[in-house]
Amino acid sequence: MTILLTGGTGKTSLRISSLLSSSKTPHILASRSPIPPSTQDSSYATHFHFDWYDRSTWETPFSVSGQKVTAVYLLAAGLMDPLSVVGPFIEMARGKYGVRRFVLMSASLLEKGGWGLGKVHALLAEMGGEGRWSGVCFGRRVSWMVRVENLSEAQHRSTIREEGKLYSATGNGKIPWVSAEDIAAVAYRALVDEKSHDCEHVVLGSELLSYGQLAEILTEVLGKPVAHVNWTEDQVRERYVSIGLNEGYAKILAGLDTSIKEGIEEKHNDIVEKVTGRKPKTFKVFVEEKKLVWL
After folding, report:
1. Using an 8 Å Cβ cutoff, are 205 and 226 in contact?
2. Among 47, 66, 203, 259, which is most buried by a count of CB atoms within 10 Å?
């Protein structure tokens, strides 16, 4: 059994890789960027260059001597028309290499058959049948936006550290923040369990917290003031463009801030505990573990 992880240098893929290495499961990290040195040390991980927009890179991970890919983790965030790219890849993996298990990283706001990754979700569901697909619909807001790691590794890290500020257009809207470690743990089980899950897992945290409440917890743990600054949707869009997102994608993400403000994200569940056997990490524990990145 060999697992293929697309988006191999992404937050969830690297954490899945760590779990696979711990269980001595051979796997392939496929990405446009080089993998971190810590992952290179694993004797169970192989890396190949992979680009969703370059079909000449698609088959290379399947050509590893002595390794048959049995499951694929699909991470395609940021593609404006993912079905036109990911769809042909799935057909190639199934038709030419016999892959029967796919775990899709999507978003709970994207309904099956709807916009973007929702269409990929529908394609996988249409395959049907035992062992043919494992749809994992996790995260919120185009999947990566609600991970607590966005505060320690992504767009909010520098503003918390340097300004003591969290910027959003979410108002008092609450979100079920979840750790990438918990997302990875659910995906890991969907990839390696003997029986394919063949379902949709909406992976949420155990707490509903607004950005203002995040700021209060950060203030308490870090011992320095952190405040939430409530921007307009346009200000958030401009911020995303300034850090490199294209205008269309930035507009979608900024619009989702408004949806959060209106309460669309105020829900949680026990999927992490059901699938992994442990409760998801709380935000306060996460901050205590990562506090040095903001000091």
Report:
1. no
2. 203
Which of the two residues, 221 and 149, has the higher pLDDT score? 221
Distance CA 273, CA 277 (A): 5
Query: What is the SS3 assignment for the chain?
Result: CEEEEECCCCHHHHHHHHHHHHCCCCEEEEECCCCCHHHHCCCCEEEEECCCCCHHHCCHHHHCCCCCEEEEEECCCCCCCHHHHHHHHHHHHHHHHCCCEEEEECCCCCCCCCCCHHHHHHHHHHHCCCCCCEEECCCECCCECCECHHHHCCCCHHHHHHHCEEEECCCCCCECCECHHHHHHHHHHHHHCCCCCCCECCCCCCCCECHHHHHHHHHHHHCCCCEEEECCHHHHHHHHHHCCCCHHHHHHHHHHHHHHHCCCCCCCCCHHHHHHCCCCCCHHHHHHHHHHHHC
CA atoms within 13 A on the CB side of 103: 29
C-alpha–C-alpha distance, residues 218 and 205, integer Å: 17
Structure confidence by residue, pLDDT tens digits, 239-285: 989 988 889 888 988 998 998 899 988 888 898 999 999 999 999 99
Contact yes or no for 39/29 (Cβ under 8 A): yes
CB 226 within 8 A of CB 164: yes
pTM: 0.86
Q: What integer pLDDT is reported at residue 228 of this predicted model? A: 97
What phi, psi does 258 have (nearest 5°)?
Answer: -65, -40
Give the separation between CA 229 and CA 219, rounded to whole angstroms: 14
Which residues partner with 3 through β-bridges?
A: 27, 71
Reported as half-sphere exposure (CB side, CA atoms, 13 A), residue 208 has a value of 13
Contact in structure between 51 and 78 (CB atoms under 8 Å): no
